[in-house]
What we know:
This protein is mostly helical and 191 residues long. It has helices at residues 2-22, 33-65, 69-83, 85-100, 105-137, 140-161, 183-190; strands spanning 167-171, 178-182. Helix 3 packs antiparallel against helix 5 and helix 4 (85-100) crosses helix 5.
Amino acid sequence: xxxxxxxxxxxxxxxxxxxxxxxxxxxxxxxxxxxxxxxxxxxxxxxxxxxxxxxxxxxxxxxxxxxxxxxxxxxxxxxxxxxxxxxxxxxxxxxxxxxxxxxxxxxxxxxxxxxxxxxxxxxxxxxxxxxxxxxxxxxxxxxxxxxxxxxxxxxxxxxxxxxxxxxxxxxxxxxxxxxxxxxxxxxxxxx
Length: 191
């Protein structure tokens, strides 16, 4: 849990530095402490128990099925990336981070809908090769640690690609589609 918390918050710290450098405001950028602590909390409290259960489940499946070597690595990677874990973990990340920002459940779900497939495509491009190596060459007891090291890169990507902002998804029940309003516009509209 501690390692995961350090790596997720470290990823956010790197993301804030990268974002500031891109905007050429590195010296004048104010550090977003709340954002940093949300990443720390997610990495320390929300992610580790589920990730631990996931890796134990994958290993149990491989042992139960008697798979070994490359076949076990491919089986674990396909199951993880294309059957259940990647879908769940990405949805979980976006919903938890939205909730930690103070968004309502409906706002979290609409934000998830807007971000989900782009996150999935990015995840598959990074994690499929990483997990093939992990599951084939890294002993089971060290696989989560191996993933956590790469999670620093992943959490940095997530924080750069999906930074918190002041917009929230709001449903206009008179319109056929979801529209995005910033909170001040919503407050003005509602009076």
